[in-house]
Amino acid sequence: MTIDVTMPQMGESVVEGTITKWLVKEGDVVTEDQPLVEISTDKVDTEIPSPGAGRIAKIVAAEGETLPVGAMLAVIEQAGAEAAAKLKVVAPKAAPKPEVAPVQVMPEPVLPPAPSPQPMQAAGAGLREAEPEVGGPRRFSPVVLKIAAEEGIDLSRVPGTGIGGRVSKRDLQRYLDTLRKGGTPSVAAQPQTNGAAQSGARPATTAAATAQRAPQLGSVFRAPVYQPVEGDIVEPFTRRRKLIAEHMVYSKTHSPHVGTVAEVDVTNAMRLREKHKTEFARREGFNLTFLPLAAAATVRALKEFPRMNASMVGDSVVTRREINLGIAMDTDEGLLVPVIKAAEGMSVVGIARAIESLRRKVAEKKITADDLAGGSFTLSNPGREGNLYGFAIINQPQVGILRMGEVKKRPVVVEVDGADAIAIRTMMYLALSYDHRVVDGVLGNSFLYRAARILEEADFEL
Question: Is the pTM of this model over 0.90?
Answer without folding.
Answer: no
